[in-house]
């Protein structure tokens, strides 16, 4: 049975933390809600595929980390929720695109650009031993830890063209 | 067995520290404590490395690291230092594009103060 006092105290603490967060919100994150969701499911992989490596890269944000990715890269990111192996995923937060001929810089993200990836595996990382010892006090503690990761195979970078169309090709297309 | 595990973890140690359990046990414990501490220090060290690389690459284009980061922040470009260092190493033209963007934005404000970034010493 929670005490009312406890509830009130936690309410107040929440507000204090929130207002402090508002105060020190830097121009980096105008609003977390303005940015699109980091990833969304987009179907499944039908069968074996081969990927062409194109001279195009994107800087994409997954979780708290950013990665510079191209096609046919394998990226190990923090575990993505709600996806299983062989799902296709679109990564919506693209911070920068680059090809041989142009660079697109997002402020902070490039609109209408995304990276499609396939979930290759959902694995546990290697075990790290977490060991604490207090000397001369006969106290030590040993724990093992395995981080959950998602292996993403980058399929394609959308939002930039890898080859610059020559004026002749543009005239033919028109 | 606990002893076997400790000797397994003591592989590569010097002298009796890798073979004799009475010497290996405190050595392994110290090693594990250092590993815990250094997993945290690694993050700091990597960031230092990225900053050094970004600074070197920026100065090649005539901009100081501090001014570059300030310019990127003002432009609301949220690329972090890890990726910036990768761009500086592997995508030099894209890195130059970022530097040029910062220079372009600073040219507006520098016209008021009239000072160049690196000063007369470095060209």
TrEMBL record, chain A:
What InterPro entries is this protein classified in?
Answer: bL21-like, bL21-like_sf, Ribosomal_bL21
Supply the alphabetized keyword list.
Answer: Ribonucleoprotein, Ribosomal protein
Name the PANTHER family for this protein.
Answer: 50S RIBOSOMAL PROTEIN L21, LARGE RIBOSOMAL SUBUNIT PROTEIN BL21M
Cellular component per GO, a single term: ribonucleoprotein complex
The name on file for this protein is Large ribosomal subunit protein bL21m
Per the UniProt record, one Pfam family is Ribosomal_L21p
Q: Which residues form a coiled coil?
A: none
GO terms under biological process = translation
Q: Which organism is it from?
A: Symbiochloris irregularis
| Domain of life of the organism encoding this protein | Eukaryota
Q: State the similarity comment.
A: Belongs to the bacterial ribosomal protein bL21 family.
> Which Gene Ontology MF annotations are present?
RNA binding; structural constituent of ribosome
Matching NCBIfam families, A to Z? L21
UniProtKB/TrEMBL annotation, chain B:
- GO terms assigned for molecular function: rRNA binding; structural constituent of ribosome
GO terms for biological process, alphabetical: translation
Per UniProt, the keywords (alphabetical) are: Ribonucleoprotein, Ribosomal protein, RNA-binding, rRNA-binding
Identify the domain of life: Eukaryota
Q: Which Pfam families match?
A: Ribosomal_L20
Alphabetical list of Gene3D superfamilies matching this protein: 6.10.160.10, Ribosomal protein L20 (1.10.1900.20)
Assigned GO CC terms: ribonucleoprotein complex; ribosome
Is Cytoplasm found in the keyword set?
Answer: no
Protein's job? Binds directly to 23S ribosomal RNA and is necessary for the in vitro assembly process of the 50S ribosomal subunit. It is not involved in the protein synthesizing functions of that subunit.
**Family designation:** Belongs to the bacterial ribosomal protein bL20 family.
Q: What is this protein called?
A: 50S ribosomal protein L20
Q: What is the lineage of its organism?
A: Eukaryota, Viridiplantae, Chlorophyta, core chlorophytes, Trebouxiophyceae
